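Re-run with default settings, no changes from the original entry. Doing this only to confirm the output is reproducible before filing.
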Amino acid sequence: MDWTLTPALLSQDATPTLHGEALLRTARMLRDMASGGGRLPPLLRSRHLALLSRRPHARSQAVVEAAARCLGAHVARLPAASVQGEEAQACETARMLGRLYDAMDCEDLPLQAVLQLRQYSGVPVYDGLGRRDHPIMGLLPCLEAAPAGKQERLRIEESRQYLLQALLLQTLR
């Protein structure tokens, strides 16, 4: 399944599509695993994720980084300038990054740079996976609430993390 161009996760009537249901099942499984012992197993132990952004301390990428690390992935933050430049150089850089990383998440990069990464890297390339307006966040209301007693904000952040982890697992297994 090609998650680089996120397939429709919700239908027009806001019910989850087959892709959305698959992500929700995985997110629920992760939530159940975490509630049993508190920590998730390192399901992405040997995987490497690159985070590319113009803003080195972007909050949205910190969310992606935490979700990936919680599953045991290795995460590197790279400056956006490393993938921009002359087209031939950018294509070669994309190929090299594809050999070093299993997936990449880009934020605040020009569309052309993201498209070149997708075309030449050979690995999944997300566009702003941790942003609150990413299509995956449309599934938040569909994920059952966490156990009673937790504050609403904590439930939302946990649910968001489980959805991100579900997408990473389905993409990188």
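The domain at 18-172 is CATH 3.40.50.1370 (Rossmann fold). The CA atoms of residues 41 and 55 lie 30 Å apart.
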